[in-house]
Please model this.
Amino acid sequence: MSLKDNEIIQLYFDRDERAIEETQKSYGHYCYSIAFHILHLNEDSEECVNDTYLKAWGVIPPEKPNHLNLFLGKITRNLAIDRWKHNNAAKRGSGEMAATLEELEECIPDRQSTEDVLEGKLLSESINRFLHTLKEQDCNLFLRRFWYGEEYSEIAKRYHMNINSVKTSLFRTRKKLKEYLEQEGVTV
Amino acid sequence: MMEQENKVTQETEQEKKRQQSLRLMEAMNDVDDDLLLRAQKEPKVLRFPVMAGKMVAAVLVLFMAGAVFYSATGNNKKQSTLGFRANSIMDNFALINHRSGDASPQLDESVKSDVEMAESNTKNNSVGETNKETAQQNVTEGMNSQAYVLSMGLDEAKEVEQLGEYIPTNMPEGFAFTEAILSMDEVNTSLQVFWRTQEEEECSILIRKASMDEIYVMDVNDTDRYDVRKYQIPYADTVPEEYLTEFISPVFSAGDMTEEIVNSRMQEMTDFEDEVPVANFGILLEDGILVNFHAKMGAQELWSVVSELL
Model:
């Protein structure tokens, strides 16, 4: 039987190595799913998940996540995106991640200096504010596609919609996001 | 040389866009937990058991009482609106009473008389109350099939399995949602949604899974069968008899649908002071869903609603 989140977090605080085992039991599949949606490679996805556990061990404590699954999911997602960048440095236009990026083509300055790092934070804050303006379903569809990296067919099945409706909703939301970021003065 | 330079510039631009997209993906990692938690939840799918008798009666009575109250506080325009709503009630109730295999829907006569009574009443709320009691009694006694009718809000309606996703999301300015009604029996399920403006314009759609053998899909080249501009009201006197059944509310394939077809269905209501036309037609979508429109609004506005479905 899986431990509850607060019990797992306590294991981290106690520096009890069972923390990793329990994390894997409860969230291994979840983290793998996030990684695989981005990488579409079994080995690389497993490596990202293992790296997630290591990173979690390194930051808890002092971190004490309110939602352990999301905390782990964000670590995995970051790691998977970095791995994808490494794997695809020379390539373009393959896999679902490439399709996702093509959908998200926006003008953002490269991260070169402190000033650009701040712009990245501003971008994150703007995106959050934007997502809060959306209707629940539109926001959910957007996150399933661009945070979880799911394919249209998966999203359509999850929400009992046809694929065209999903595509239409996402197209409109992307357009709204661009307009929103332009209004906010964030470089896109 | 020039061509090569252009190619390099193009590749540089493409790479730049890619990097920018990646930044956007990375920035999304800091999305608020509450939004992610919400996206993780299994979506609700409304399922309703088939019920009969008092529940159906209660919902219908509430709906009709609302319609009666509305007419009691209005003028001729609102009476015509009630006629519009009464027609919608009757259409809806006809669905409830329709039995599988019947040639045509059988409208309960006692309910029909209540609707007519409500139409004639424009001033007296107490009469409306009497109508409500009478309607309740008649509906309870008149119901002869297992059916379920539920009035719901727009968010709930959008979650109705298979049907809710076809509710338009971008209604023209001024159109406010008023009600949605889900009707179910052993055979049919339909979802009807109403919007109206303060200027008495209205739009309602009826969404259901179509039975292909019951639908005649219009040949758009055969305009005599559906173009209201070719005929004068009353249509029963001017439209050829063999066209009349489909003429009232023709069904078009989604792939054929154009703004011109919408224009061809706009009936000018010259009997009333207002000049907002009325349109009735259906659209058969690719996955076998039929969306029937009954609208009292401008043609361009109606086309903007229709085009969202296509």
Summary: Residues 5-87 of chain A form a domain with the Rna Polymerase Sigma Factor; Chain: A fold (CATH 1.10.1740.10). Confidence is low (pLDDT under 50) at residues 106-114 of chain A.
